[in-house]
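check these tokens.
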Amino acid sequence: MLQKLIIAACIYILIIIGLALYSRKGERTSKNYLMAGSSLGSLLGMFTFAASLFSTFTLMGMPDFFRVHGVGAWIFLAFSDALMVFGVIWFGYYLRKSVKESQHEYLGMAGFMEKKFNSKWVGYLMFIGVFIFLVPYVAIQIRGISIFLNQAFPDALPLWVWASSLVVVMLVYSELGGLKAIIYSDILQGVLLLIVVWIIGVFCLNSLGGMEAMFDQVEAKNDKLLSVPGPKGLFTLQFFIGSAMGIMLLPFSQPHISTRIMIMKDNKSLYRMALGLGFFAILVILPTAFIGMYGAINYADLSPAEFLGKTLFTDQSEIIAVLVTIGLIAAAISTSDSLLFALGGELRSLLKGEDKQMVNIARIAIVVFGIVCLVFALLSNDQLVLLARTSFAGTSILAPLIFTGILAKNPAAHKWLAIPTLIGLILFVCSSLGILPKVYVGIRAEIIIPIVLGVIALGAVFLSRS
């Protein structure tokens, strides 16, 4: 099995390295290297969006989330993703309009906000905010596939070697080909993810005797899995509201998504891409419910790593197990290098100087960011979905500031909004770490903070237009 995996992995790596070399056309400028030439069509856009969003945590985190917390997980992602599609369309239109009217070149949200507010401190705040919350999201991709490989081949390599190898591959690939190479690989990763998740999902459903038999067995095992708030009481109204807010605001606050909005060739391509993304979301989430219910029936008492190792690997034929593993590796690499590249782009957008030299600085920074994410991956826990959710909620705190920069007539007059945004970020980090309470007056901090900042930002925009 290990030999087959090594052969398949080598083939996959050669393919993506080939794509990276194919992408190395023209001078390595910010527009070519970091923005992929800014001429993306709807089909490529859908795959690169999907590959960035639905990654390792989808195939590994979501099944375990269903297994532990029940069917309420469907609402957690499906409803929130529907809102996110609306956010892509709405925000995409106004962001592209704002960039066009400002006549500033868009290289990253941090640099664009710096120009709109005419404040370098706003730009630095944007960069620090996305850095703090994207590092955990990259780390869960690395950790997710590493714990799976370590579980599947316990005597082969230690977890840190698997994780380090993944980081080296993604850095080499992204450094070679830039964002265009990442987009090409996203097509391969998106197709692999869909194939793999449905193969395993159908296997799990058939093993349980079909849909009706699956729910009957789950009910007999633990009927709380079939209702909210679930056996552990997670799916409360506030949890859903906080989750929906965080995911809906992804297009506004996460730079790898806003970058993909800006590199669409026109608004029509953007709208078609968003609709395709919504359809893709349903297709990729549904089978993870089957996998999770299979685990709830057969492996309820196992750790997440043991459950995933048995369900995705041990219970499958050798060919399917190898395909699953390659699919997971592809998902981890595709999402992680997109996020690392986005961080490099955000830094480049703040730099002033000769373009080629600034691109080289950004490339060095991407390597540094990769090392930081590797360290975090080795130190973090195995709750992949909850870590991803924390990342989404954290970056959503930046959304009101971005709204103001895009919608206000004179954003520079409202640069003071950086102060409450900074306070909001500090409060959220402290509450997430347990230093401050997670609930105030009966409401979770992740809900209160964006709403308060949103009200302040709306007031600023209203005053600017009155």
